[in-house]
Specification:
Blueprint: E1 6-14, H1 18-29, E2 34-37, E3 53-56, H2 63-83, E4 88-90, E5 93-97, H3 99-112, E6 117-119, H4 121-127, E7 138-142, E8 146-149, H5 150-163, E9 167-169, E10 174-179, E11 185-189, E12 192-201, H6 207-211, E13 221-231, E14 241-244, E15 252-256, E16 262-267, E17 272-273, H7 284-297, E18 307-315, E19 322-326, E20 329-333, H8 343-355
Parallel strand pairs: 1-2, 1-12, 2-9, 5-14, 12-20
Antiparallel strand pairs: 3-8, 4-8, 5-7, 6-7, 10-11, 11-12, 13-16, 13-17, 13-18, 14-15, 15-16, 19-20
Helix pairs in contact: 1-5, 1-8, 2-3, 2-5, 2-8
């Protein structure tokens, strides 16, 4: 009978997406020996972290998230300095909607002390002629918003973690977790079993497969979302990031490219619920909806997309994250289409949870909150 191969690691991180990558850097920077387990290649396009760009914005309806974005901004700059790579391009960000729907966003910005401007339809037309809005729509403008280079950011986190001594194990799916009596965790993989003092569970849409067998049932809904890329018309300036604060049928958002003149237009949180292992097939109906939105509201863009792609959202019912520790497990899931911008701050929060620091997370992100049952 072949003897099972066993290896020992201080900290295991399951998932090399943006949160796992950020956690790996934060933990390795604190002197931990880190192993990252990724079921695919680190550059795969089957999860929630791939692609050219993500929005960075402070405009939120809750002051907690405004503050988290404020805390993340200098950490992105630190990552840029350490990696020598420009990752966050400031364009400003806009939220559009009827006046009454913008009030909660404005209150949150005011509570957090974030500078912002309220713009009338006339001011929008003058300052941002690249947008054509419905009558009666106003806007909030916040100057710190911008575009994160998503693939490059994930690569930077992982490279810096490697330089700190972390090991990245690609094509190594974790098939099971076995908490031990001494508080450690055994990870079962096709390459053998690995023992860790603590395991960070951050595999996005695949998290419930590892947590459910342990009795840690967290309501995570996995959906396939879709984006299309449009060319900026000649003579038009790069648009600021934009999202609809009033909930249109497709929940549109716009992310300008910082590199090639393409503009990403997406539909937020309206995709079909799926199994995360399903292929990411582009839906032509959604492409048509996005094209129609561009034709109606974005005269600065050519109306026909250059190409389209899909990604996964792994969301909780209340759209708040899960950042919590249970025994030897630190859970970091449920970032559902709005977590990427917070990645460097969340990586540090995960490291704080691993170290058992007081106040590392908050009740808002508890795994035991009622809505997750």
């Amino acid at each position: 009978m072949r003897k099972e191969r066993r290896q020992t690691s201080d900290i295991a991180v399951i998932g090399a997406g943006i949160m796992g990558a950020s956690a790996a850097w934060a933990l390795s920077s604190r002197g931990f020996h880190v192993r990252v387990f990724e079921q695919f290649d680190t550059g795969h396009a089957r999860g929630s972290s791939h692609g050219a760009s993500r929005i960075f914005r402070l405009i939120y309806e809750e002051a907690d998230y405004v503050r988290l974005a404020q805390a993340s901004l200098p950490l992105w700059r630190e990552l840029e300095r350490t990696s020598g790579t420009k990752l966050l391009h400031t364009t400003g960000s806009l939220a559009f909607g009827p006046p009454s729907t913008l009030e909660s966003f404005e209150r949150a910005l005011q509570t957090a002390g974030a500078e912002h401007q309220r713009l009338s339809p006339t001011e929008i037309a003058k300052s941002f002629p690249g947008y054509a809005l419905d009558s009666g729509v106003e806007a909030l403008y916040q100057r710190d918003g911008g575009v994160i280079l998503a693939d490059q950011a994930r690569t930077a986190f992982l490279q810096l973690a490697r330089e700190n001594g972390a090991t990245i194990l690609e094509r190594t799916p974790v098939t099971g977790l076995r908490p031990q009596d001494d508080g450690s965790v055994t990870l079962d993989t096709g390459s053998g079993s690995f023992r860790a003092e603590c395991a960070v569970v951050a595999p996005s849409g695949w998290a419930t497969r590892l947590l459910d067998p342990l009795g840690l049932r967290i309501a995570i809904r996995v959906t396939r979302e879709q984006v299309s890329y449009f060319r900026l018309r000649e003579g038009h300036e790069i648009l600021p990031c934009f999202f609809e604060g009033y909930g249109s049928p497709i929940g549109a958002y716009v992310v300008p490219s910082a590199q090639n003149g393409e503009v990403k237009v997406g539909a937020h949180g309206t995709g079909a619920e799926i199994d995360p292992d399903e292929d990411g097939t582009v839906d032509p109906v959604r492409v048509e909806e996005l094209s129609r939105f561009v034709a109606d509201h974005l005269p600065s863009l050519e109306a026909h997309p250059l190409w389209s792609e899909t990604c996964l959202y792994a969301s909780t019912p209340d759209d708040d994250f899960v950042l919590d520790r249970v025994g030897g497990l630190v859970i970091g899931v449920g970032f559902g289409g709005h977590g990427f911008k917070f990645a460097p701050a969340i990586g540090r929060m995960i490291a704080d949870l691993v170290e058992g620091r007081e106040g590392a997370s908050s009740e808002r992100f508890a795994h035991s909150r009622a809505v997750l049952r």
